[in-house]
Every structure is written in C-alpha cells, then in structure tokens.
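Exercise 7. Given the encoded structure of a 263-residue chain, write a plausible sequence.
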C-alpha cells in the first residue's frame, strides 16, 4: 500500500495480491457451483454484462438458459466494452455480450450476430432522403441527430463509417441509452442511427420510419465473451454451450436479418 498523509492506492505488488485473492475466491465459488450442479442440477446466479446496443438481444440467451436451469440472471446492460473485459478479469461478471472485433488474449468467444444499422426518423424527415430504399451516410449527417455518447463502442463504430464517407455528424443530443434515442425520435424533432436488432425490441412506432443505411453497410460481429480458464466456471461453460446450439443460433440469424425498412 502506498503510504502518505492520505490513501494513495495499492502498489503494483498489492494489486497483484488482490487479483490472486479474487481468483482464489472465484475458483472456490466455481468449485461449489460444479459440485451443486452434479448433485441437483445447475442453479445459482448468472451475471452477464452487455453493451447497451446488445442488451436487447441478450433475452435470446437468458430465455432458453432460464428455461433449462433453475438460475437467476443478473444483467448489467449499460457497460462499455472495456468495462466488460475488466469486470470479467476481476470476476465481477461471468459472461459478457459485446463487440468481438477487438477482443484481447485471455478470453473465449462465441459469435452471436452481425450488427447492422438503420436510420430511424419521422416520416416527414425521411421524405428528404431521396428516391432510394436506403439512406446514405451523407444524408444522415445533415439531419438533426441524437446519437450514443462518444465513449460508447457503438458510437465509435459509427464514427469510423462517417469518417470514411466524408461529412462527420454533429449530434445535438448524446446519451448512453438506446431507449433514450428512441424516445427522442418519437418527439418528431430528431433522427438517429441504431442497430437494426433494436427494432425487435421497440418496433417502429406510428409516424416513424426505419431506413437501412447504404454502403458502406458496416456489419460488426457481436458475441458472447468469457474468461479463458480451464476448467471454466460451470455457469459460464453452460452458457457458452447454449450459445452454440441450433436453436439459439437460428434465433440470432433471424436477428441479423431484421433490418425491416419502412413502417
């Protein structure tokens, strides 16, 4: 521990000791869960962290999982990608649902779906998008936009595409909540760009229109992430196995193709 007039935090050695202590406690809990699962079936608490843009899709995992096992699910649905990896390493969550294009070593992944984007706007604003069935990124940049905050990975993906296409958007509203984006668009004043998967959660309300974004049609893989441990916790292993089943794979395949344009 660094000593002084005030607490200055742990030394590097102290931080390593804390990490080892967390690992020992996690291994103890994993052993207990493994023994309980052998005796009476899987039970306990499954902790999942998700980025906001993927939180609506987590139900495709938790529904079948709870249907097969007597477990309680705790979902933390407002995490950044870096928060998910950090909490996995600190044994604060059992699994995460996040973007897979920048996964570091030490993690296991199962791809779930491809995230594609739609422009969500009121009908009158959509009339000015041209005659095509898609919206260009240049057209979207000229609309009064509300977008995710720049600290969110979903926003950084959009920024990369806008940078490739030229004009960068100047959103008047930024938030860390996808639900807040939908709420703002419903006022009739704003437009936003959201993952098409969220149309399955909120739908497209009367007076609103969802228009697929034109090329470059950026698709980013979203997947399930756990720590690469042998043997891994039985709860995390079972969830990973479920994510690979035909039932769950088919559900996420339908989600990937859900960019329903129009009303």
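Solution.
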């Amino acid at each position: 521990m660094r000593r002084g007039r005030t607490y200055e935090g742990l030394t590097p050695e102290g931080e390593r000791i804390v990490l080892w202590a967390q690992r020992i406690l996690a291994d103890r809990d994993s052993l207990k869960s493994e023994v309980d699962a052998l005796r009476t079936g899987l039970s306990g608490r499954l902790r999942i962290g998700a980025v906001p843009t993927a939180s609506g899709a987590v139900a495709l995992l938790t529904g079948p999982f709870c249907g097969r096992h007597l477990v309680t699910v705790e979902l933390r649905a407002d995490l950044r990608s870096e928060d998910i990896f950090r909490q996995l390493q600190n044994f604060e969550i059992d699994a995460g649902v996040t973007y897979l294009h920048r996964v570091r070593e030490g993690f296991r992944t199962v791809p779930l779906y491809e995230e594609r984007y739609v422009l969500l706007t009121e009908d009158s604003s959509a009339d000015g998008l041209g005659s095509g069935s898609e919206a260009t990124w240049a057209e979207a940049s000229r609309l009064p936009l509300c977008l995710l905050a720049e600290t969110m990975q979903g926003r950084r993906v959009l920024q990369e595409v806008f940078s490739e296409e030229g004009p960068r958007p100047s959103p008047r509203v930024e938030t860390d909540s996808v639900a807040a984006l939908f709420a703002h668009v419903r006022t009739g004043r704003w437009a936003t760009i959201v993952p098409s998967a969220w149309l399955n959660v909120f739908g497209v309300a009367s007076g609103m229109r969802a228009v697929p974004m034109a090329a470059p049609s950026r698709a980013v893989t979203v997947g399930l992430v756990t720590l690469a441990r042998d043997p891994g916790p039985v709860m995390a292993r079972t969830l990973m196995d479920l994510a690979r089943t035909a039932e769950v794979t088919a559900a996420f395949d339908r989600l990937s193709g859900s960019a329903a344009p129009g009303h």
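Remark. Residues 61 and 230 are 23 Å apart (CA to CA). Students should compare their own answers with the one above.
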